Amino acid sequence: MPLEAGIVSLAAGIALFSAEFISVLEAVIHYICMSKENKTDFPVIPETDYPHVDVLIATHSEDTDLLFKTVNGCIHMDYPDKSKVHIYLCDDNDRPAVARLARDMGIGYFGLSDNKLAKAGNLNHAITKTDSPLIVTFDADMIPRSNFLMETVPYFTLPKMIRNGGIWRKRTEEEIDPDYKIGFVQTPQSFYNPDLFQFNFFAETNIPNEQDYFSREVNVGRTISNSAIYAGSNTVISRKALEECGGIRTKTITEDFATGIDIQANGYTCLAIDKVLASGLAPDDFPNLLKQRQRWGRGCVQTIRSFKFWLSKLPILAKLSYFSCLLYWWTFIRRIVYILSPILFTVFGVLAVKADIWGILLIWLPSYWIYNHSIKILSGRMRDQKWSNIVDTILCPYMILPILAETLGLRMKRFFVTNKEKTVSRSAKIVYAIPHMILLATTLVGIYFSVKQMMLYRNLLGLVAFFWLFMNAYFLTMAIFFLLGRINYRSAERFYAELPIRFDIGEKAVVCKTCDISEFGLSFKTDFPEFINGVKTYTIRDGKWSAIVKGEVVHVTQQGNQWKYSVKLQPLTFEEKQDYIQIVYDRSPTLATEIKTTALKDLLLFFRKKMVKSLPSKRSLPRILLDCNLETGDGDMVKVADYNYQYITISEGKPSNEFTVKLGHVILRLIKSETAALAKDNLYEIENWESVSASAELHEELKKLLLGEVSIEKELSTVS
């Protein structure tokens, strides 16, 4: 501590020491939770032992199109006896449209008017009107996979089941521990759309969702200390556990977080598993993201600082684990300290640390390397220090005051519902980057002074300051890039999936596989440039689910030796929608699951994607490069460059404005097109293209030209 350097230096030193101490404390608690085996045995039980389940979907103001997908996923959940699954839409706005949706889909509806207790009041109202021993809670946007119940419900039988020699059996009366009871099973909060960090950095395939590390690693690890966090959705809860703690906790802005603590304090064992079984929408604009994080942070601080928490019956290890949650939300305060400390030293001469260069390197360098290496290993490659610092730098200017206010007891009283609507717009505004620009400017000034100090005075201490200034400049630059935003053109998310698909061209059935699917479209690849014109009927299958949809090809491109067709679907009927939406969303998100990038690659990727503007192609027929000679009706020869069923380009020869060419036994009548082609080429429209394009004769002749006599016909028995 720089005690003799003045009050400002002393304050800076205390701030930096506090930040480092809190970081170490959080890391120690975190590693205790993460360093042990945290997997829970999954019991195998008879089908008759699966109990009744109430599925509660909480909605406030969400659109019925969004609710449809969640309800549809719930309806399609597997269960030995589907009559034991009771699904309810819980609407605290009592909307007729939502009631009608529930009726149309054959599920229950609980309307609630004048709800003053937010989501907690909505769920508690539904709980009083149901009676199943297990309760499943879903947010309005969270779509469960078909195996959700089958992968969660059996955990509640653990107190009555035991495994001997790999075989599960029921415990005898003497083997049952009356104090062992399961309170809830939490599955990951997964998202099928890229979160804002993935999206704005063009990193959907390079970095995982920012919440994956917590949901799939940290929260699972917390099972060891029985401090797994109830996240409010994607959860199965014991009704008895809820009733014993008085239902969902009210008068708090994070009712789920507080309720989980109440259940654990009553002696219930609570589990978090790492298997993704439901996915929803991550916030896709910065203001909405901020509201969400401020509510989470303030709610956590509000709960942990209360006497009710510290006087609860939670074990000390569980209390420490929850205390680490509080320390996490102080991360944003720590981040601003780390940014300001080298600036104060280099620009204003404020000494925060009294030490020589060797002392700093001896203490700091090994710990810095160990921390970086450890976080990569313990996070399952889903998080590293670089990305943690980038995220914290982006959020810190807007999280400091809310967290400080809540810490000092200035409570947030209004409950903000996270917007669940998909937006098609720019994801952020540059005005939010003003604090980061100011910090970056002063950091660059600090870099100048640190370099000057090292060159003029041979002061190696400036090297450490330079390192942190340089790193902070990178984090701040990435934050500004993030806040530049990115325009979202997609109204629905795309899932990469290889599924069998079938359609007819004339009398010929084409069977191939999809590349990706979405609510409003799909794409597939064929080995041959098929003529697909107008609206076609497509049969698509995924395991036990099958759907029939109609659509029109809007884009074709050649990819290697295959042809990719993009199809825009026509509006679906209610029945078609149920089948097709189930196929689209009954899968894990196809986004990155581990970090696959570096700092330099991040910058290069951003600039390449940001600067290169790709124009959307409107090519709806395949452009086939023939580069061959064909005979005209007059006996002359012309060289054909390319062909797309409707048009043909002549690269050599001097034909007239109207003539015919022979493609094997098929005669094509050509008329000079008024549309300008390449300067050296002649573009002709095929007058009889509609009558010959789908013919088997033309197909065979093209196949001979492109593939010789090799047949490409394939049969996939999975598509009927």
Could you give a short description of this structure?
The chain is of the alpha+beta class and 720 residues long. It contains 20 helices and 25 strands. The strands form 5 sheets. It has a 7-stranded mixed beta sheet with strand order 3-2-1-4-10-8-11, with helices on both faces. Strands 14-15-16-19-18-17 form a 6-stranded antiparallel β-barrel.
Write up this protein.
- There is one protein chain.
- With 720 residues, this protein is of the alpha+beta class.
- It folds into four domains: 46-329, Spore Coat Polysaccharide Biosynthesis Protein SpsA, Chain A; 334-415 and 429-484, no CATH class; 495-611, predicted glycosyltransferase like domains (Thrombin, subunit H), CATH 2.40.10.220; 624-687.
- The chain has 20 helices and 25 strands.
- A seven-stranded mixed beta sheet has the order 3-2-1-4-10-8-11, with helices on both faces.
- The N and C termini lie far apart (77 Å).
Average pLDDT figure: 88
Task: Indicate the CATH topology of the largest domain.
Answer: Spore Coat Polysaccharide Biosynthesis Protein SpsA, Chain A
Considering the protein shown, what is the CATH homologous superfamily of the largest domain?
A: Spore Coat Polysaccharide Biosynthesis Protein SpsA, Chain A
What proportion strand? 15-25%
Distance between the termini: 77 Å
Number of helices: 20
Spatial order of strands in the largest sheet: 3-2-1-4-10-8-11
| Model regions low in confidence, pLDDT < 50 over at least 5 residues | 709-720
Largest sheet: 7 strands, mixed
CATH level 1 name of the largest domain: Alpha Beta
